[in-house]
Amino acid sequence: MARFLSFEGIDGSGKSTQARLLAEALRGLGHAVTLTREPGGSAGAEEIRRLVLEGEPERWSPETELLLFTAARRDHLEKTIRPALARGEVVITDRFADSSRMYQGIARDGREGLGATVDALHALMIGVEPDLTLLIDIDPELGLSRAQARKGAEQRFEDMGLELQRRMRAGFLALAAAHPARFRVIDGARAPEAVAAEVLAVTLAHLGG
User: Fold this and answer.
1) From CA 140, how far away is CA 54, in angstroms rounded?
2) In whole angstroms, what is the distance from residue 90 CA to residue 57 CA?
3) How many other C-beta atoms lie within 10 A of the C-beta of residue 101?
4) What are the beta bridge partners of residue 111?
5) C-alpha 92: how far from its chain's center?
6) Contact 188, 146 (CB under 8 A)
7) Spatial separation of the C-alpha atoms in residues 102 and 98, rounded to whole Å
8) Nearest to residue 134, comparing CAs of 192, 195, 80?
């Protein structure tokens, strides 16, 4: 049965680990699964990923970021998500449009948020929402410390600081409250195994067994 699932959360929430663990668990139960990510998930989108996640925090304006993320998402949708759903697979993506609603949609750097523009571009170029969104919720200080400990090249958003993470957490929780039929909020501060068990239970309930 084709289903489109997304994981969301602030940086360092553990959502990437949970997306991988869920994919492994569902495959073990006999489901065909495509595990993917944003930005990325297709050849063209992976090229854009490097542009938006690496470099100085001020490298792009929020407006330019939004156009780059939307271009990556459109390619991801065309090349990976839609074909997998057409094959009847469960598609699990580490981030989707809700991340743009946060990272570019909320106010930052003294600029007004681009929420209306994010939604307009999404309606025009994407037009798809996940069937189920798993929001891995975590304290921003803990999440940022985890994210910065990774010491990788993709640190551009982490380098924007704790206040952005706090605003994004509040924004994600508000989005979940506004769309309760799609979102499930999962406490990400527990051991990964405990989080994974709840994620699997929620997902199986959504899949119908």
Assistant:
1) 21
2) 34
3) 21
4) 108
5) 10
6) no
7) 6
8) 195
DSSP state of 198: H
The single residue listed with the structure tokens 């989707």 is 96
22 pLDDT above the threshold of 60: yes
Q: Is 38 helix (H, G, I), strand (E, B) or coil?
A: coil
| Local structure of residue 113 (DSSP, 8 states) | P
Integer Cα distance of 71 and 73 in angstroms: 5
- Angle, nearest 10°, between helix axes 62-76 and 43-53? 160
Question: In angstroms, what CA-CA distances link 72 with 61, 115, 199?
Answer: 17, 18, 27
In terms of pLDDT, which residue wins out, 145 or 204?
204
The closest of 19, 38, 10 to 200, measured between CA atoms, is 19
Residue 152 has pLDDT above 70, yes or no: no
Query: Are 92 and 25 in contact, with CB atoms under 8 Å apart?
Result: no
Q: Mention every residue, 6+ apart, whose C-beta is less than 8 A from residue 97.
A: 73, 118, 122, 126, 129
Q: What is the pLDDT of residues 53-111, one digit of tens each?
A: 887 777 888 899 899 999 999 999 999 999 999 999 999 999 999 999 998 888 666 56
Could you tell me the two tokens for 121? Answer: 């571009």
> Which pair of structure tokens corresponds to residue 133?
């969104």
Contact of 91 with 3, CB cutoff 8 Å: yes
Amino acid residing at 169? R
Buried b (16+ CB within 10 A) or exposed e, 116-134: ebbeebbeeebeeebbbbb
- d(C-alpha 75, C-alpha 70), whole Å: 9
Widest pairwise Cα distance in the chain: 49
